[in-house]
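TEACHING EXERCISE
Course module: macromolecular assemblies
Task: Read the component lines below, then compare them to the predicted structure of the full complex.
Student: A.B.
Group: 4
Components provided:
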Amino acid sequence: MIKLKGIAASSGIAISKAYCIGKEEFSVPQKKISHADISREIYRLEEALIETRRELFALQKRIADELGFDHARIFEAHLLVLEDRVLIEDIIQQIKYKKVNVEYAFSQSIQKFVKTLLKLEDEYLRERVIDIEDVSRRVLRKLLKKETLSLEDLKEKVIIVAHDLSPSQTATLPKEELLGFVTDIGGRTSHTTIIARSLGIPAVVGIEVATRNIKPGDKIIIDGYEGTVIVNPTSKVLKDYHKKLAKVTREIKAIHIPRVVKVHTSDKREVVVSGNVEFPEEIPLIQEYAAEGIGLYRTEYIFLGKRLLPTEDEQFKAYVSAAKKVKPHSVIIRTIDIGGDKFLSKPIVPAEMRPFLGWRAIRFCLARPDIFKTQLRAILRASAEGNIKVMFPMISGLEELRASKKLLEECKKELKKEGKKFDTRISVGTMIEVPSAALTADALAKESDFFSIGTNDLIQYSLAVDRGNEKVAYLYEPGHPAVLRMIKDVIEDAHRNNIWVGMCGEMSGEPLFTLLLLGMGLDEFSMPPPRVSRVKELIRNVNYSDARKIAERVLSFTTPREVERYLQAEAKKLLRDNFERLIII
Amino acid sequence: MEKVQKEITVNNPHGLHARPASLFVQIANKFDSVVHLEREGEAVDGKSIIAVLSLGINKGMKVKLIVEGNDSPLAFKELKEFLEKEHD
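Instructor-supplied answer key:
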């Protein structure tokens, strides 16, 4: 038994056999051929190339349909390799003069070129090497008469183990047969993570040594809560996990997903429970989990991993598509929050010592009005076609809000002059995630249409804790009285100025805090879509008047421990039989 | 057969990697002419993605573009423009 530790990317537990991708060892036989065989071998090469081309075209078309034309472009280089004159000529030469079989000639030529490319030590070329190897595997499969990913033949569902999964690989996987993903590289925002979350299956990524320790067919347990993978478990561990799996399955089944989008407490206080979206692939989850629109639409994905800045039209299309999908509910678009832990192409944002205190989000946008205005124009134009609101991240004072709104007004004027349509009364929100903004919320409220509290940053700034640093992470406490008092004041300042307040940090989707925030008067709760149903059921099961009393009491406590213990006890009293189901996971 | 050749500085911000290399090869393949790229005395087939990639050309590097064939003037013009272009 080996226990591997990685990043808990998607929750859930799965127990099954490992199916290793990219590890298929083709034993390529080397055979001497006679002169008479030469033309037959060359013919087989041509056949295999044509078949692979056909396969890639079909795949390209499917991906273009499912994910859009841009994604399908990744196959351009694949296709060029297939018709590469230098490569084909080299293979034919080997068949003709070295008198070797086509499989051997082919793999020799490929290896030769891969070696040349790797010598160049260039990051982009290394990516091309992956393409070339991918194509070569496809061709070899044809030559050796092996079927493409014979997952269909498997008698049981499997856990996919890979170094990394590319969009082209995940697109071809039979989704019904997958129980989970385990990868060497990747993080909470990588492609594998997103796919796993949207499929609702567990994933542990960033294990580094997964493919080295897991062999095809190994029995593995993947624990997406802990971020662990257990290879060939002992019978005791296996038994424990089967129990755990059964418990988790029971709990998930107990939460039914309501069709009704609107939600109110037992005593009829209405609140909004909406979803956070990081990638367009997640938008269907909004409907699936009956969230009331998108409370946080992150736009970084449009900018990251690109070598050129996205155009206004590209952005416009993305925003319109989101707005149309969640109509009539709203999409709250957060303008780019680049910097901190996220980076645009390197030349624009230089490395910083303390990126979280540096040139990011609205600071970056105000310094680069060209980039910012392109985004604002796209958002405004999209607002003509759906219910769109806009909010600015990391505002630290009134002047930044004013400067941002001034640019927004400029964009409105330009669009008007150009005769382009937009929602002239688009709602403009301020994100409250810097303590200075929280403490001046009364002033900000007068010039905002709504607030959205970003607790992840607000907590780390208020408590001076870097959550990524293991040594101090224990100090990151959403229940710290300082954080709670600040949130309470922000909500009151907003209500006093007749604007609504939402929260898009993780805290709003943690049931005990949901109860507390509800009592503090929070109007909107935005969270990862899979959490929506549980939170809605919780809200439906409590009285606003009870929640208010709890909130009042909590604000008199002096330590996070007291807060949590009290919340647990009160929730137990309020929810009785529903407590385990709604609070504990 | 007409042969056109000239030393060109690559201005494409990404040199001749990945997508720009694909595009270059695609343009070259439109023509009948034989296309060669030469850097530091090493000449490769300009119609081969693998060969073009293996030159490892970055922005600002000089390459010799050699085009030979019936449609060489036009082919040379298009390929030269592509290499000298600032953006892809």
